[in-house]
């Protein structure tokens, strides 16, 4: 059950970030991104945020124009503590997604299901680092 919740938190986080209204100009304004992400993450149930805990997440984001923006996100107790415009070393999770994928999630009638579908189709890719993180995500994906 805990494994399923962890993946659902990941999916909810993607859905939350997709629903945040961020202008194209704000993609490199880490303070705006942090504020928007925390507004969305605060809407998650407490147990979901506690499972996110203290994590280091790298996100490789590809806007429609084809450029690549790398984010290093540090979570503290399930909320964004810091976002930087470079990848972190020793991350727990790397996520690869495009603006098109986020648009599909935010425009979907069922954002969670859409996010799960995009993960299964590898439109949104991830790489978990560490045995425990890999095990939790792989097991959760099998039971969705």
Give your account of this protein's structure.
- With 144 residues, the chain is an alpha+beta fold.
- The protein has one domain (2-143): 2-Layer Sandwich (Nonspecific Lipid-transfer Protein, Chain A), CATH 3.30.1050.10.
- It is 48% helix and 22% strand.
- The protein contains 6 helices and 5 strands; from the N terminus they run H-H-H-E-E-E-E-H-H-E-H.
- The protein has helices spanning 2-19, 30-41, 46-52, 99-107, 111-120, 131-143; strands spanning 56-62, 69-76, 79-84, 93-98, 125-128.
- The protein has a 5-stranded mixed beta sheet with strand order 3-2-1-4-5.
- A hairpin with a 6-residue loop joins strand 1 and strand 2.
- Helix 1 crosses helix 2 (30-41) and helix 4 packs antiparallel against helix 5.
- The longest helix is centred in the first third of the chain and has 18 residues, at 2-19.
- It is globular and about 30 Å long.
- It starts with a helix and ends with a helix.
- Residues 1-8 have low confidence and may be disordered.
Compact description:
The chain is an alpha+beta fold. Helices cover 48% and strands 22% of the residues.
Question: Secondary-structure blueprint of this entry?
Answer:
Blueprint (H helix, E strand, L loop, with lengths): L1 H18 L10 H12 L4 H7 L3 E7 L6 E8 L2 E6 L8 E6 H9 L3 H10 L4 E4 L2 H13 L1
Parallel strand pairs: 1-4
Antiparallel strand pairs: 1-2, 2-3, 4-5
Helix pairs in contact: 1-2, 1-3, 1-4, 1-5, 1-6, 4-5
